[in-house]
Amino acid sequence: MRIYSGDALKSKVLSAPLLPCLQRKRIIMSRICQITGKRPRVGNNVSHSNIKSKRRFLPNLHKKKFYIPEEGKWITLKVSSTALRTIDKHGISAVLKKAKKQGNLLY
Predict the structure, then answer these.
(1) How many domains does the chain fold into?
(2) What is the CATH number of the domain that holds 97?
(3) What's the Cα-to-Cα distance from 52 to each of 39, 43, 44, 45, 48, rounded to whole Å?
(4) pLDDT for 71-89, tens place per residue?
């Protein structure tokens, strides 16, 4: 049995290929709407004494399953509330087509 320590251990860990489940998590964990492309924005918390400190405004995201009748399958998307309203208005097929054209769709 070989025991690695220090820099040798770091090089072994960093050079190892990522497992498919970890690569998939990296995509799922991002806080980006797959339809509209909304991302976290940066702004300031402003106190009563007008002291400013940095903060993040996160989009209102939901993980939702949609049925696509043309393909006959279910897909799971991470969408914002605005995107849900758009899907209700135009339909999932039209919205997916437009998102693919804009390059926002990650699935």
Answers:
(1) 1
(2) 2.30.170.40
(3) 22, 9, 6, 6, 10
(4) 999 999 999 999 999 999 9
Tokens 């040798």 locate to 8
Q: Render 18-35 in DSSP notation, one character per residue.
A: PPHHHHHHHHHTS---TT
6 inside domain: no
Whether residue 30 is contained in a domain is answered as yes
Task: Give the pLDDT of residue 17.
Answer: 56
Domain of residue 90 covers 18-102
Q: Does 96 fall in a domain?
A: yes
- Predicted pLDDT of residue 22: 47
**Cα(102)–Cα(4) distance, rounded to whole angstroms?**
47
Asked if pLDDT for residue 9 goes beyond 90, the answer is no
Q: DSSP labels for 31-88?
A: ---TTT----EEEEEE-TT--EEEEEE---EEEEEEEETTTTEEEEEEEEHHHHHHHH
Tell me: the pLDDT tens digits for 41-58?
Answer: 999 999 999 999 999 999
